[in-house]
Design goal:
alpha/beta, Rossmann fold, Helix Hairpins, P-loop_NTPase, ATP-binding, magnesium, tRNA dimethylallyltransferase activity, EC 2.5.1.75
Length: 287
């Protein structure tokens, strides 16, 4: 891949769907131009998963500085707000930030600002965890409903929790969003534009590679702590391999379901990135 022109000390943002090659590009930029690689992937923050979330290897992390990878316990509550509070000091550090990942919400909070919404009380979150998606959607105000993907449980639940906890809709809070920490115009903002079939083949190969590298061992280590309600345990491939370990699925069925789930996730990512990041510079693997 031909590297884009990057000005000295210019921050770099790299987004794209899973398995598209984002981490490899971040490493190449860091090797050539210097910088610290900062994680912007919600699954890779947890210390229980390296292989199954495709976190950089120990050797890669040792080759150039990496931050916010595997630093959160599996049962810790973590949000875009937590990520922003941790990433802000890194933007003023001595090294160029190279922020890479597939969690679009992290990039949105960074480049468009984040509303000062109070922390949700645990009892409200516990109530929401027991509610259906339809129940929560019905309780939202019309403006919020019109802005959300009502099939996305995490987004709908977040909106319901905010509205219930504060008495104000999330749309109302978002209207008070402060200026962003970074402007994309001041960054090398790169978005992977990949062919669907090319990506699908990479997803299949990568999951097989994860299995060869010990993904099942990671899952076995976490079996007694596995809780499907925890965000860390929703990482793609984890529920499927847990089901295999518990005798609920055959190995082939678990592998097939995990790769299908990954393809579906990548499709949602591609659609979201194309609608939200039209001003970013598209990069194409192999070009």
């Amino acid at each position: 891949m031909k590297l884009p022109d990057i000005a000295p000390d210019q921050p770099v943002l790299i987004a794209g769907p899973t398995a598209s090659g984002k981490s490899a590009l971040a490493l190449e930029i860091a090797d050539r131009h210097g910088g610290v690689i900062i994680n912007a992937d919600a699954s890779q923050i947890y210390n229980c998963w390296r292989v199954i979330t495709a976190r950089p290897s120990e050797q890669e992390e040792a080759s150039v500085p990496h931050r916010l990878y595997g630093h959160v316990a599996y049962d810790t509550t973590y949000s875009a707000g937590h990520w922003m509070r941790e990433v802000l000091p890194l933007l003023d550090g001595p090294e160029r930030p190279i922020i890479v990942g597939g969690t679009g919400l992290y990039f949105m909070t960074l480049t468009r600002g984040m509303a000062p919404i109070p922390v949700t009380p645990p009892e409200i979150r516990a109530t929401a965890d027991q509610m259906s998606l339809e129940e929560m959607s019905a309780g939202l105000d019309p403006v919020t409903q019109s802005r959300l993907d009502l099939r996305n449980r995490a987004r709908v639940q977040r909106a319901w929790e905010v509205q219930t906890a504060t008495g104000r809709s999330i749309a109302n809070w978002q209207a008070e969003t402060p200026p962003p920490a970074l402007q994309t115009s001041d960054c090398a903002a790169l978005i992977f534009d990949v062919d669907k079939d090319w990506l699908g083949a990479r997803i299949d190969r990568r999951f097989d590679l994860m299995l060869d590298q010990g993904a099942l061992d990671e899952v076995r280590t976490m079996l007694d702590r596995y809780d499907p309600a925890l965000p860390s345990c929703k990482a793609i491939g984890v529920p499927e391999l847990v089901a295999y370990e518990r005798g609920e699925l055959t190995f082939d069925s678990a592998r097939e379901r995990a790769t299908i789930a990954t393809r579906q996730f990548a499709k949602r990512q591609r659609t979201w990135f194309r609608s939200k990041m039209r001003d970013w510079t598209a990069v194409t693997p192999g070009s």
